[in-house]
Design goal:
This protein is α/β, with parallel strands linked by helices. Helix content is 31%, strand content 21%.
Length: 374
């Protein structure tokens, strides 16, 4: 049986390392499968396209790409698009990311040393017991309190038995958090709009409610992303001609200023203090200075670690209008407790929930709803 790892990126290399030093049965994988890599080999392993693999039915594939699984109309999971593609191409033994972790549990021990986003090899950076206890006290539902306990357990162990699978819900619009229930119309702020994926989902979800979309204001400073964001907005204008769509080519911050920005052309572009050749200078604005008079009723923030400053820059708006909030709390280890407690200090009347929408704790989102929403 051949062993292949789908995905030749960082996660794929971590899978390779775990297989080769597996304490129960060390195995040397035979090759990577990657549809986009231009490398012929990585770390001594060939890199192949799906169509170039011989004896597909005799090849076991571990998928290192952390995509969420799709569900049918009955809510039953049938795996990721990658798994479906591999199976339809003739592979018989294929493990999606979550199942691959169970098959190769040692791989998780390699993640903390990479210091990816919230992950850190110093547990004290990831778990502050006193602050987490405070956070538990402000969460409003049992699902959130249970999730918090599980998040802490996984951060301490990085053990497959504590792994939290994505909940399969629509990010920023989960069914069990009634974000949209009390909104008669949508006045949405998309901080970190990327290429318009949230603009599309917000427009679609709200159209389904039968309520009007007053406006969607998008903030995205990455030059490459802006072009694709603009294309998406043009599509949404055709579907919702009565709605207003605005694009601000600036970042979101605690004040109006000029900062250094890593212009990566992907979802990880961020404000940075360590300048490189590809970095650019961008304008940043506080939401209070730009949109206070527009009275937004739903604000989403996914801005690669700048969320704390963005919250401070929306303090007046939060206290005055109490908009619903969806804030990513996974970019830095301390975001898990610092961001919810910051919002609570600004406006203690919110009901707060957390949900995990992505693999490896990514797309962990804090939802803050004014208590009029039940």
């Amino acid at each position: 049986m051949q062993i292949a790892i789908y995905g030749a990126g960082l996660y794929g290399r971590l899978f390779k390392a775990a297989l080769e030093i597996n304490k129960d049965k060390a195995v040397k994988p035979d090759f990577f499968i990657d549809q986009f890599s231009m490398a012929e080999s990585i770390e001594g392993l060939p890199v192949k396209r799906i169509e170039a693999v011989e004896n597909k039915s005799e090849t076991c594939v571990y998928i290192s790409v952390a995509l969420n699984e799709e569900k049918n109309e009955m809510g039953e999971s049938f795996g990721t698009k990658i798994r479906q593609q591999l199976v339809s191409s003739g592979f018989k033994e294929v493990y999606d990311f979550s199942d691959a972790l169970l098959q190769i549990p040692d791989v998780l021990s390699h993640f903390p040393e990479q210091r990816l986003l919230w992950m850190h090899d110093d547990v004290s950076r990831m778990v502050n017991e006193a602050e987490i206890k405070k956070l538990e006290g402000v969460l409003s539902d049992e699902t959130s309190r249970d999730l918090l306990k599980r998040i802490v357990a996984f951060r301490k162990s990085f053990d497959a038995k504590d792994y939290i699978r994505p909940d399969g819900q629509e990010e920023y619009f989960p069914e069990d958090v009634p974000v949209l229930d009390a909104l008669d119309s949508l006045r949405f702020v998309d901080a970190g709009a990327y290429i318009g994926d949230t603009v599309a989902s917000a427009s679609t979800v709200f159209r389904q409610t039968g309520k009007p979309i007053d406006y969607i204001a998008s903030f995205e400073p990455d030059l490459e992303n802006i072009e694709r964001l603009s294309d998406e907005i043009e599509r949404q204008k055709e579907l919702s001609p009565e709605a207003k769509y605005f694009v601000y080519t600036s970042g979101v911050w605690s004040e109006n200023s000029i900062l250094t920005f890593s212009n990566e052309g992907n979802s990880s572009s961020s404000i940075t203090t360590e300048s490189t050749q590809s970095d650019i200078s961008i304008a940043v604005n506080s939401l209070d200075s730009v949109l206070f008079g527009a009275a937004p009723n739903y604000i989403k923030m996914d801005i690669e670690g700048a969320e704390e400053n963005a919250i401070l820059g929306a303090k007046k708006m939060i206290q005055t209008y109490r908009p619903a909030l969806a804030i990513c709390i996974y970019h830095k280890p301390e975001d898990l407790w610092e961001l919810p407690l910051l919002v609570h200090s600004i406006e203690p009347s919110y009901d707060m929930s957390i949900r995990v929408h992505g693999h490896m704790g990514l797309s962990t989102v804090l939802y803050c709803l004014p208590k009029t929403i039940k």
